[in-house]
Design a protein that fits this description.
The protein has 361 residues and is mainly alpha-helical.
Length: 361
C-alpha cells in the first residue's frame, strides 16, 4: 500500500537536496574561478581599459541602485521588514561601486585615493547596513525589524554622505594596502558575513522551496566575491575584472530574486502582514500554499478574531520550533499545523460557534 504522506515527504526532501546541491555546485564554481583568476596562470594578464571599467561599473552600479530602490519600495508597500533590510544592504552595496566607477583614473578623475577607498569600503558598509539580518534574534535585530524604515533612512543617509565625501574630497580618506593585515581581516569578515546571509536564504528555500530564494542565496555568494577586490593591487588584472563583473551580477540577481520571492497578492498580504514583519515568520509565508491562503482568507471573512488567533498560534509555534532548533521542513510543518488547528470553524455555523449557552445535542 502506498503511503501518500511518505511520498510527499520524499518529494520535499528531494527538492531540498537538489537545491542544496545546486547551491554547492555554484558556490564551488565561484570559489574555484576566483582562485584561478587570482593565482592561476593568467593571473598576471591585464586589460588596461579605464573607459571600459568606468562604463562597466557606472552602468552596473546605477542598475543596482535602481533595482535596490524597487526592492525597498516593494517592502514599504507590503510592510515586509526583512525585504526592506535586504534592500537597504543591497543599496549600500551598490553606492560605493558606483563611486568606484566614477573615480576610475584617467576618465573623469586623475589617480586618487578615492578609487581604492571606494572599493575597500563597499562590502563593510553593506555589512553594517545589513547587521539586523545577521543577528535577527538580538534586541537590536528585533528593534530594527520593528523600525526598519528608520534604520533604512539612517543607513542610506550615512552611505550617501560618505560617498559624497569620497567623491568631492578624493584624497581625504586613505585605506591600507592590499597585503595589510587590516585589509585581509576586513575582507574575511565581509565574505563570512555574506556567506551567512546566503545560508539564511538557503534556509528560506528549505522552508518555502521557492527557486527565487535559492537564486538569492547564490547571488549573495556572488556579492561575496566582490569582497576580495581590496586584496587586488592592480585594477586591470583578470581577478579585478572578475570580481567587478561577478559582484555586479550578484547585486542585480539578489534584487530580482527578492522582488519575485516576496510578490504576494493584496489579499494575502493583508492577512499575513503581522507575520511578515518578524523573524522567523518572514520565512513561513514562503511555504504557504494557495490552499492555506484561501483558508485564512475564508476565516477572515467569517471571523476576524479567529483569523488573528490562528496567525498568532502559527507565530508562537514557529518561535518555539526555532528555540528547539527544528529543521526547516519540521519548522514549516509545525507552523502549518498550528495555523490549521481551527480549520473546522470555517464550516461550523455561527449559531453554534457563538452560542452563549451550553450546546444541545
Amino acid at each position: 500500500m502506498v503511503d501518500p504522506d511518505a511520498d510527499m515527504c520524499n518529494v520535499k526532501n528531494s527538492t531540498e537536496i537538489r537545491g542544496r546541491s545546486r547551491w554547492g555546485v555554484v558556490a564551488s564554481v565561484l570559489a574555484a574561478a576566483t582562485v584561478v583568476c587570482t593565482v592561476g596562470p593568467f593571473a598576471s594578464s591585464q586589460w588596461v581599459h579605464p573607459r571600459g571599467l568606468f562604463s562597466l561599473m557606472t552602468v552596473a552600479a546605477l542598475t543596482c541602485v535602481l533595482m535596490a530602490t524597487v526592492v525597498i519600495s516593494l517592502a514599504d508597500r507590503r510592510e515586509m521588514a526583512e525585504v526592506g533590510l535586504l534592500g537597504t544592504m543591497l543599496m549600500a552595496a551598490s553606492v560605493m561601486p558606483l563611486v568606484h566607477g566614477l573615480v576610475t583614473p584617467d576618465v573623469l578623475f586623475d589617480s586618487t585615493e578615492a578609487f581604492r577607498t571606494s572599493a575597500f569600503l563597499a562590502l563593510p558598509i553593506a555589512i553594517v547596513s545589513g547587521l539586523p539580518l545577521l543577528a535577527p534574534h538580538s534586541w537590536f535585530g528585533r528593534w530594527a525589524a520593528r523600525h526598519w524604515r528608520d534604520w533604512t533612512l539612517l543607513s542610506l543617509l550615512g552611505v550617501f554622505v560618505l560617498a559624497s565625501i569620497v567623491v568631492f574630497f578624493p584624497d581625504l580618506i586613505t585605506t591600507p594596502g592590499p597585503r595589510h593585515a587590516v585589509t585581509i581581516a576586513v575582507t574575511v569578515v565581509g565574505v563570512v558575513a555574506l556567506s551567512s546571509l546566503s545560508m539564511r536564504q538557503m534556509r528560506l528555500f528549505d522552508l518555502g522551496r521557492r527557486p527565487a530564494n535559492l537564486f538569492a542565496s547564490i547571488s549573495l555568494m556572488a556579492i561575496a566575491v566582490m569582497g576580495i577586490t581590496p586584496l587586488i593591487s592592480d585594477p586591470y588584472t583578470v581577478a579585478s575584472w572578475w570580481t567587478h563583473v561577478v559582484g555586479s551580477l550578484g547585486v542585480i540577481g539578489a534584487c530580482l530574486a527578492l522582488a519575485v520571492a516576496r510578490r504576494l497578492s493584496p489579499s494575502a498580504h493583508d492577512v499575513l502582514a503581522p507575520v511578515l514583519t518578524r523573524d522567523p515568520l518572514v520565512a513561513f509565508e514562503l511555504g504557504l500554499s494557495p490552499v492555506i491562503h484561501g483558508f485564512v482568507a475564508d476565516l477572515e471573512a467569517k471571523d476576524v478574531i479567529t483569523r488573528d488567533h490562528v496567525i498568532r498560534t502559527g507565530e508562537l509555534a514557529m518561535w518555539v520550533g526555532e528555540r528547539f532548533r527544528l529543521s526547516a521542513p519540521e519548522l514549516r510543518d509545525l507552523g502549518l499545523a498550528a495555523m490549521l488547528h481551527d480549520v473546522g470553524k470555517v464550516r461550523v455555523p455561527d449559531e453554534i460557534l457563538k452560542k452563549p449557552a451550553r450546546l444541545t445535542v
